[in-house]
UniProtKB/TrEMBL annotation:
NCBIfam families: Pr6Pr. Keywords: Membrane, Transmembrane, Transmembrane helix. This is FAR-17a/AIG1-like protein. The lineage of its organism: Bacteria, Pseudomonadati, Pseudomonadota, Alphaproteobacteria, Caulobacterales. The chain crosses the membrane at residues 39-61, 73-93, 105-125, 137-161, 173-194. It comes from Caulobacter henricii. It comes from the Bacteria.
Amino acid sequence: MRHWRILIAALACFGPALQYGLMVHDETLATGLVKSVEFFSYFTILSNLLAAVVLTAPLVAPTSKVAIWAERSATRISVAVYLSLTAGIYHTLLAGLWDPKGWRLVSDIILHSLTPAAFVIDWLLRGGQGETGRATAAKALIFPALYGVWTLGHGAVSGFYPYPFFDVDKHGFLSVFVTMLVMAGGFLLIALLFTMIHQARTRLAAARGTPLSA
């Protein structure tokens, strides 16, 4: 199991690092700073970075506060939700809009397919520590909500929107806001589903007398 955890942690770290390198490698200092802001404006990148932290911290500093936070059931459920939505939205709405080649294709596969799948599998295999409830699902919406505020605020100032369905200049604020509400509903439904799965596994583990997280 430890070898598996090291492998997926390395994968989760490599994906964002590769994508960042591809974005800034031929930029000047000024344009590189702009690209850096844009890099951190993608929910895909942020969710993958969260996965990297959650997977890496328990391996390199298992007694640290970050590792304890990373092993919490609520944390792992939230990141699993973010990555599931990242993969689902990309493959249904965005994948057909471009045709990456070479290293961009490698980055695309890691960020939108391999890391999301690996993290969800790891969550299903290992679970997490601590109790969960409806509040867990509700708290999972905090990060996407903050991201939505950042996206609209940043876009209003710079004119840059990371995803076409968030483009206020093209679709109007009301349409984009409705889109965000629909996505929030999707986040909540998946968070509730994952929370119920975790609770069922916790009860099963208790009945068998085996630990849920290892």
